[in-house]
């Protein structure tokens, strides 16, 4: 029996991405799945209904018709609890679900006995790279953050020699050398800025320098497990902040990208540091949604702090919805392929990626 896959329009505010593109729809149909799509699914990401129909999808008029009998539901963000409660009992759902962030969502998943696969729980292994939505979406966020900074800054990024004199290049500091940070380094360099990148993991130096940036060494290391940073202790944090505050006096633009999975964003840029920056400086904080790397950041707002612009944009990946959706949908397709059996939906609990991603976690 063919696996029935359902995809409805995203309902989260500001969400424009989709978990299925015509490209991945065609691949799922070729794999033997029956794909049902709510009309208008891709309109905000610039994918037309006709393209889904040409790829073999069955188009329906509402979310209930798309999801109610689906064996497998694909999404970017989790549907509301009321929608989860209407899914077929025992169905699987794949996306950025964050079940523990909403008790009602978690209860709906448990009540309907859904096999939920929050892709943010995916193990960070070589095999999982093609399914890693966190990395693919962070790349878009880092790129967009630099463009926002360039727009807000009252100066050029590149050096210019003109009849009116020479304009020096902007000095850009990227905080955090994860995927978003490295993309920010690369983008700022392409725009001609002088770029530094600060990360408490010394092993990121080579990656930063390979992109044309300079590694800013403040003498504090917080190398952790799995490629992530550990939290700093009080003494380490105080020394880091003292040295960083001194350095920021000569920086024109800061792009903050530091994050610790499952925890509030580390507070790195204090109000005192901002006060010491030159008027006209700009801070763009990608971590706004989880508390911000800058003390003054306000999620979704751009404010003036005594001449320093502090922006806390949200949904940056969604602002590049077309390419972000293409990457996200390929990630989702690669994971969903693990669940497609010859005779229907198949969850192979001996597969590390399946077993470690499912929520609630399996015992044993």
From TrEMBL:
Listed EC numbers: 7.1.1.1
Origin organism lineage: Bacteria, Pseudomonadati, Pseudomonadota, Gammaproteobacteria, Lysobacterales
UniProt KW keywords: NAD, NADP, Nucleotide-binding, Translocase
InterPro entries, per database record: Ala_DH/PNT_CS2 (IPR008143), AlaDH/PNT_N (IPR007886), AlaDH/PNT_NAD(H)-bd (IPR007698), NAD(P)-bd_dom_sf (IPR036291)
Function text: The transhydrogenation between NADH and NADP is coupled to respiration and ATP hydrolysis and functions as a proton pump across the membrane.
Name this protein carries in UniProt: proton-translocating NAD(P)(+) transhydrogenase
Highest taxon in the source lineage: Bacteria
Gene Ontology CC terms: plasma membrane
Amino-acid biosynthesis as UniProt keyword: no
EC category: translocase
Domain Alanine dehydrogenase/pyridine nucleotide transhydrogenase NAD(H)-binding: 150-312
GO term, biological process aspect, one: NADPH regeneration
Molecular function per GO: NADP binding; oxidoreductase activity; proton-translocating NAD(P)+ transhydrogenase activity
Residue intervals of the Alanine dehydrogenase/pyridine nucleotide transhydrogenase N-terminal domain: 6-141
């Amino acid at each position: 029996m063919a696996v029935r896959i359902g995809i409805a329009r995203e309902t989260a505010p500001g969400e424009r991405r989709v978990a299925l593109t015509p490209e991945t729809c065609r691949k799922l149909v070729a794999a033997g799945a029956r794909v049902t799509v709510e009309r208008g699914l891709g309109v905000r990401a610039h994918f037309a209904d006709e393209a889904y129909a040409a790829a073999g999808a069955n188009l329906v008029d509402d979310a209930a018709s798309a999801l109610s009998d689906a064996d497998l539901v694909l999404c970017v963000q989790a549907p509301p609890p009321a929608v989860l409660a209407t899914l077929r009992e025992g169905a699987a759902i794949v996306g950025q679900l964050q079940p523990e962030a909403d008790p009602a969502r978690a209860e709906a998943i448990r009540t309907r006995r859904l096999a939920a696969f929050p892709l943010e729980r995916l193990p960070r292994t070589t095999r999982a790279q093609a399914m890693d939505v966190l990395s693919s979406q962070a790349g878009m966020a880092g790129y967009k953050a630099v463009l926002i900074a360039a727009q807000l800054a009252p100066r050029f990024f590149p050096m210019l020699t003109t009849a009116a004199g020479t304009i020096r290049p902007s000095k850009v500091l990227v905080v955090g050398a994860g995927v978003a940070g490295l993309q920010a380094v690369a983008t700022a360099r392409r725009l001609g800025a002088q770029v530094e990148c600060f990360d408490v993991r010394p092993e990121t130096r080579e990656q930063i320098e390979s992109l044309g940036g300079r590694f800013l060494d403040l003498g504090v290391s917080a190398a952790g497990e799995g490629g992530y940073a550990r939290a700093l202790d009080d003494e380490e944090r105080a020394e880091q902040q003292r040295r960083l505050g001194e350095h920021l006096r000569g920086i024109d633009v800061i792009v903050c990208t530091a994050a610790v999975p499952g925890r509030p964003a580390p507070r790195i840029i204090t109000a005192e540091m901002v006060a010491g920056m030159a008027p006209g400086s700009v801070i763009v904080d990608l971590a706004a949604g989880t508390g911000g790397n800058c003390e003054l950041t306000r999620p979704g707002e751009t404010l003036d702090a005594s001449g320093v612009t502090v922006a806390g944009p949200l949904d940056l990946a969604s602002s590049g919805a077309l390419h972000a959706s293409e990457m996200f949908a390929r990630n989702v397709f690669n994971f969903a392929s693990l669940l497609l059996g010859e005779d229907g939906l198949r969850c192979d609990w001996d597969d590390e990626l399946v077993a470690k991603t499912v929520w609630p976690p399996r015992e044993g």
